[in-house]
Structure formats: C-alpha cells, structure tokens
Amino acid sequence: MASASLQFFAFILALFGGFGDIAATLLPNWKVNADVGSNIITAITQMQGLWMDCTWYSTGMFSCTLKYSILSLPVYIQAARTTMVLSCILSAFGICITTVGMKCTRLGGDMDSKNNACFAGGICFILAGIFGLVPTCWYTREIISNFLDQTIPESSKHEPGGAVYTGFISAGFLLIAGVIFCSSCFKRQQGAWIYPPKQHHFPSTEQESNAGYSLKDYV
Questions:
Q1: Measured between alpha carbons, how far is 201 from 219 in angstroms, rounded to an integer?
Q2: Coiled-coil segments, which residues (predicted)?
Q3: Are 100 and 113 in contact (CB under 8 A)?
Q4: What is the pLDDT of residues 152-208, one digit of tens each?
Q5: DSSP code at position 181
Q6: In the chain, where the domains are located
Q7: Is CATH 1.20.140.150 the classification given to domain 4-28+71-194?
Q8: Could you tell me which residues come within 8 angstroms of residue 191 by beta carbon, excluding any fewer than 6 positions away?
Q9: Most buried by CB count within 10 Å: which residue of 14, 15, 23, 91?
Q10: How far is residue 43's CA from residue 116's CA, in Å, rounded to a whole number?
C-alpha cells in the first residue's frame, strides 16, 4: 500500500512537471528587459521567448512577433527549442506508460508487466527532466554572461523570466517522479532476487517405473 501511494504521489509530480514543461516551452518570458523611460507612459517591458518576442507597454497594450527564421537564431535558442519539445514528448509518454503500470490501476496485466511499465515510465521521466534542465541552465548562463559583460549597454541587458523558473521547477518534478518510479520497481525486483521462490522437486514417474522393472528382474 505504501508503494502504491508513493507511485501516486510521483504521478502527481509528473503531471505538474509535464504541464509545467509545456507552459515553459510556450511562454514568451524566458528573458525580460525592463526599459523605463523618463515618462511613465513610455515605460515598456520587452520579453523574449523561444518562439516569439513580446512587448508590453504601460498603457496596457501588448504586441508579439513570431520568430519565423530558424537559422538566424542563436545556437542556445535552437537547442532549447529542440530539447524542450523532446522533454514534453517524453513526459507525455511517461504519463501514459505509468498510468498502465501503477499498482492502483487495473491495467497492464500481471505484476511483472506493471513493474516493467513503471520502470519504463520512470526512465522517460528522468530523460524528460534532463532534457528540460539542460536548456534552462544553458539559457540562464547566456543571460548572466551577457548581463555581466561590460561591453553590452544597459538597455540591451536582460534578466531571467518566469519561463526559466518554471522550466527549472518542472525538470525537478520530473526527475523526482522518475527516480521514485524506478526505485519502487527496483526494490521489488531486488527482493525477488534475494528470496527466490522455492522449487519443489518430485521424482519422475519414469524413474519409478525403471526402478520397478529392475526389482522384477532380480526376483
């Protein structure tokens, strides 16, 4: 019962991590630049994401521009696009697989098949967490290096936005969920290896018949 509740807790973490991954991939505020003019009417906030750049004016107006050209983008943005999409796909696969393999569901067949499904789902969650953690770390490193560069003007410097923090938290949730699923299946398999089922050996009827014939030969 304890392992079933632990798997359910890991599944909830994986759901939050998967939805957070999708939100972080689509949000336009990976890095934010607040440019405040002399008048509060001219104050604007510029946000840049993986797929679009948005500008939010103090008057309430909001405009976005899609990034159509792929080759003109920096390498870290192209890598972030690819890895974040892979992270979303792997987390979706992991949710589907672990739904079949969890002990609290009636899907998946026998216990061995459910354990294998949970282990495969845990591997998907771990890979999704890694694919989500790498681009957020790389993106944050680029923001910090540009912010500390003295040759870049203050108006062109940015700070990490909410999408970066959402990506970090989602990757952590997916990693924790994957470790829980894999460890729960591994403990069960390890117990089966340490305490193997007892096998009862019964004498075959063929040996008994042979023994009977040999006794008749001596009479």
A1: 30
A2: none
A3: no
A4: 887 778 889 999 999 999 999 999 999 998 888 765 544 444 444 555 444 544 444
A5: H
A6: 4-28+71-194
A7: yes
A8: none
A9: 91
A10: 56
